[in-house]
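ok so for the tutorial part 2 we go from a plain amino acid sequence to predicted structure tokens. step 1 is just haveing the sequence, like this:
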Amino acid sequence: MHLADFELGMMGANGIVGGGLPIATGAGLAAQMDGGDQVR
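step 2 — the prediction. this is what the tokens look like for a chain of 40 residues:
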């Protein structure tokens, strides 16, 4: 089962080993470009 809650900042899980890296990179870049304080 793959769970995600975008309102809490939980991007979910990926069943592929190493598959979460592109998701985390994109989420971090989006948060940084959005001006949020999730990425420092």
